[in-house]
Amino acid sequence: xxxxxxxxxxxxxxxxxxxxxxxxxxxxxxxxxxxxxxxxxxxxxxxxxxxxxxxxxxxxxxxxxxxxxxxxxxxxxxxxxxxxxxxxxxxxxxxxxxxxxxxxxxxxxxxxxxxxxxxxxxxxxxxxxxxxxxxxxxxxxxxxxxxxxxxxxxxxxxxxxxxxxxxxxxxxxxxxxxxxxxxxxxxxxxxxxxxxxxxxxxxxxxxxxxxxxxxxxxxxxxxxxxxxxxxxxxxxxxxxxxxxxxxxxxxxxxxxxxxxxxxxxxxxxxxxxxxxxxxxxxxxxxxxxxxxxxxxxxxxxxxxxxxxxxxxxxxxxxxxxxxxxxxxxxxxxxxxxxxxxxxxxxxxxxxxxxxxxxxxxxxxxxxxxxxxxxxxxxxxxxxxxxxxxxxxxxxxxxxxxxxxxxxxxxxxxxxxxxxxxxxxxxxxxxxxxxxxxxxxxxxxxxxxxxxxxxxxxxxxxxxxxxxxxxxxxxxxxxxxxxxxxxxxxxxxxxxxxxxxxxxxxxxxxxxxxxxxxxxxxxxxxxxxxxxxxxxxxxxxxxxxxxxxxxxxxxxxxxxxxxxxxxxxxxxxxxxxxxxxxxxxxxxxxxxxxxxxxxxxxxxxxxxxxxxxxxxxxxxxxxxxxxxxxxxxxxxxxxxxxxxxxxxxxxxxxxxxxxxxxxxxxxxxxxxxxxxxxxxxxxxxxxxxxxxxxxxxxxxxxxxx
Length: 704
What we know:
By secondary structure, this protein is α/β, with parallel strands linked by helices. Among the domains are: 30-149, no CATH class; 310-420 and 460-486 and 495-584, Leucine-rich repeat, LRR (right-handed beta-alpha superhelix) (Alpha-Beta Horseshoe); 585-670, no CATH class. It is 28% helix and 15% strand. It has a 20-stranded parallel beta sheet, sandwiched between helices. α7 (127-134) crosses α8 (158-165), α9 crosses α10 (271-283) and α20 (563-570) runs parallel beside α21. The longest helix has 16 residues, at 235-250. The model is unreliable at 1-15 and 429-455 (pLDDT under 50). InterPro entries: F-box-like_dom_sf, F-box_dom, FBXL18_F-box, FBXL18_LRR, Leu-rich_rpt, LRR_dom_sf.
């Protein structure tokens, strides 16, 4: 029974109020509106407002799939109540990255008797909790978990193992050498493995990649269709993944259609892996492929592999030439309309006919790029970053002009030097990177765009941005850029200078991005000719859907020349959720945080700045005003004492009201930085704290 004050009624008539009664909308429209509300709010709050919403909020279309993975306000009590109220109705439950919930919260999942898909990646869970939970989920077919130090497969009950034997899809993140639950999953069709094992323990001891005694059960791959492995840097991860691959090399599954291994650095081919690849060449036809560069470079493997209707290729960091790409992968430029995602990041010769006598900075062959565009006309995700793709002076053959034909692109990553308008800049003297631009001494009115002698509307990059109406994710990254904060290593103190071709790219090109109305994610790194940052204001005003913004090393390194424009831009970014800034000498003071406070949707902030400064009072005030912020990472030039005091103050003041709060304030160049980084939740570390290109990083829809 609802008390009178809980009914949504109005004392005014529609004519008097001048509005529309929400409850007069059809059920279909109301259900669509309610689908944008977090499930915890629907079940625990909204449904208690009136009788009609009480019924609609429990509609199967809203309760069968429950997504808690970025519901940072959910706590253990809400999880308990949610499972009690609608547990039996839930078929898919995603709790990925809920690192703040205690392991006891997982116990409440036992009430979801009809659960088919369960994602617990990033959650605290022990072997015993996992056993208890899975023992009751007889209908489970898809599972994602972490395997942490201390995991013991012998603690899994027979009922739990019976559930695992029916699981068809498994995503497993390993923080310790182990098979995890893979040997129990005898019906696997999709296996995703993320190797995050460190080479050294906290005490400094070297770790071994050998599996613990009792975990040598053989994985069952006979039904496998998808095999994916992503390795973090480190030799232990390589050792462990070889143990997983050993079984595949003995007998390749007949139905295998996607084989993907993402490995940074050098991952040498062995006899076992060569046998595996030879077997794949003989017995399977693939739809998705990614291999370590050492397995492809110098081999004739691609000539022998057979493809069916490929939708994803990644040749990241391979020395594959454009000629090899067209002939061996794309059948001489024949129709490849099925390909929707292509990662050529770091393939420095992929747009040249051959690589033997070619320098990385030589002009690309526009015919190869045109063949690529014509045969792969349905590409939605394309990554060409981390290479020097220099267009020739010939009119009509510029990289931007050719890419403009790909009308279906959703995400695009390009090197800065590739967007330079060669013809327009032929008569212009090059910008000297070691000379401070004269305009820095002048006062510039923010909002009035100033460009360097170039009419923006005539540039090829301006035309490209205007021709991609559906683009959601854009990355423009300097070909020689490297973040000051790499993974598992000390901070980088020196960076390589930008490419000569890139030194004319600045405010005009940034302003061109403002045409992309539906842009949701933007990364700009190492744009040397940023003089005022006025183009950022255009983006803030016109890209109202922007949710993620990452800026790194813009303009001259000795001075943050775009600070005023950035602050003006932030005042318009009402939908911005993630902000990452990497810039030497960045001053995070009161004015900056006052501007940032206009970003009412902001949830995560990361600042990386060598010799940068921060104002503790301004940070505290910002956190008090921005109630949605749950992650604050700052790696600056301040002393360890200042950093520790601020971090303790933030945690003490805001942790109680924000259960998901994660705060790391630490000197960037401190020797213990890697130890601090290892405690950051993987969700934040992978998505925002560490810089990387994310376009076509994985196949689309790899996991639900």
